[in-house]
Amino acid sequence: MTLETTIDAPQRPFRLNYGFGSHRGLRRQLNEDSLVVTGNLFAVADGMGGHEAGEVASRICVETLASGVKQVRDDLTAEQLQQLMVASDDAIRRIAESRAGTTLAGVAIVRERQGLYWMVFNVGDSRVYRMSEGEFSQVSVDHSEVQEMVDEGYLSREEARHHPRRHVITRALGTGEASAADFWMLPVHDGDRLMVCSDGLTSEVDDEEILQELSAHHAPQDAVDALIRDALRSGGRDNITIIVVDVEDTEAEENRVITSPRSADSEEQQTTRPRFGDGGAGTLVGGVPGDGGATTGDAAVDRRGGGRGPQDSDRHGDRQGERA
Fold it and tell me: pTM for the complete prediction?
């Protein structure tokens, strides 16, 4: 089946095609990652806490987001999304009694000023990347000690990937004093490809390799599968969760002239089939078109302590999709 959703904008309609996956990795006993996939919200949460506490924190986070988005449906605004993140933080603190936390990164389609925008958000070191109009970049900025050292010129990005303090994050939902998210508003363009991931990918695969895989695979699910394989081949020391979302301007597609016949298997190549790798699966709540879906899979927090770090959670999860 093809996982897609169509969103009608005042200017013209867009179709979102997406794929996702989660894997426990090769060294973790649990998958503490969770993800939420709906028609207009795509996010990854990387739980911290150990002894299943991290899994609980990430699950609470995505369930809260999914429930809130389900209520507003296609009318999600930037203000509502910010309120949902505050509600997620409060829920984790109340249920886990501040003994567990989670990172969160994602993108949402929001309506602002009579137009459609990507609202990119993050807390911690899960990331959002964007390919758009020939450019590839990391949109989110990590909340971590090594990112602060990079910003101050003490480390290069490559040195940061291997630094012994790379596990220490400075913001998280549900624990610590700093839980505020950062937000970016980006216009939606035909041909956009966005990727949301936990640090189980970026700790193993550098940005150049990520770009190569995103460029090499047309179907979002194929890109997800390839990136998970790359992370496992590089060691798979943490849980790996990835969402890839493509934007297609349906009006532009209808106006395109088809100059050659499609191959017999072209429909199959267009589909995105959610899969889960072997091992402990992350949690996905929902996954039905139109419903909110979620998957589980500045005080500094060392995520290695008690299974709390980017390198400390090996998750293997399944992928599901939703339509608005």
Answer: 0.79
